[in-house]
Amino acid sequence: MIPKIIWQTHENKYNDLLPFQKDITNTWKNLNPGWEYRYVGAEERSLAVKEYDEFLHSYYLESAKTHQSDIWRLVTIYNHGGFYSDMDAVCVKGIDETLLNIYDGKDLVFSPEGFQHSGIGSSNFGAVKNNKIIKEMIDKIILEYRNTDIKDIPNLPFASLENRIVSEVAMKNKELIFFNNDYYSHAAEYKTLFNSNLDVVFNKEKINYHTLCINMNWPIYYI
User: Fold this and answer.
1) What band does 28 get if pLDDT is binned at 50, 70 and 90?
2) Are the C-beta atoms of residues 3 and 80 closer than 8 Å to each other?
3) CA-to-CA distance for 58 and 52, rounded, in angstroms?
4) CA 104 to CA 142: how far, in whole Å?
5) Whole-angstrom Cα distance, residue 119 to residue 168?
6) Is the pLDDT at 217 greater than 80, yes or no?
7) Does pTM top 0.70 for this prediction?
8) Where do the DSSP E strands lie in 32-99?
9) I need a surface site. Which of 37, 137, 140, 192 has the fewest CB within 10 A?
10) DSSP label of 31
11) CATH architecture of 5-216
């Protein structure tokens, strides 16, 4: 069983997030009652990777921030289990409610192939603790780093290494993965704003999220 933990990360500490970013995190908290929400800032993120593997951490430190997040999410889900979500993804339906009648018990949940790019991405995914497929992804990243000069790491293009390896390993193990992305919406606009006027599903009913927040007395920071 995948632990009921939701993970997100950004460069700042949670209290220093912008109002719209806090609204995004609250979609995950509000629509997933009974789940634990864990947010990790840059310092804690770096420490987690260092504790996992010193060599991996040395390359992590030289990586762009987006690559650092790619590494950390794999390490964290492997160590603890749960669901990871990018900060530009909002929850639109509870994870329990989404998977209740269709989840077939697999230990790993990814978005379908072709969502966002041609392969299988790690913008949102979930797994049990110590998942072997996640471990294979991490091991392959470390192996590729060992064959890469550390001076070249800062110049790696976006998604050139970590995302490619995630996709390759996931494609190879497709029969062991449950594919679904009905519980969230991922959009570039969420990098800079949040619009609470969106439809979500709560207690099996579709409702406007802004209306739901008012009804439930949930705060909305970004107006």
Assistant:
1) very high
2) yes
3) 12
4) 31
5) 8
6) yes
7) yes
8) 36-40, 82-85, 89-91
9) 192
10) T
11) Alpha-Beta Complex (3.90)
Amino acid identity, position 1: M
Beta strands 199-202 and 89-91 are unpaired
pLDDT single digits (tens) 130-154: 999 999 999 999 999 999 999 998 8
Do 11 and 42 form a contact (C-beta atoms < 8 A)?
A: yes
Q: Where along the chain do its domains lie? A: 5-216
Tell me how far the alpha carbon of residue 143 is from its chain's centroid: 23
The arithmetic mean of pLDDT across residues 169-176, rounded, is: 96
Reported as a single tens digit per residue, the pLDDT across 76-89 is 999 999 999 999 99
- From residue 119, give the alpha-carbon distance in Å to each of 113, 122, 163, 167: 5, 10, 9, 5
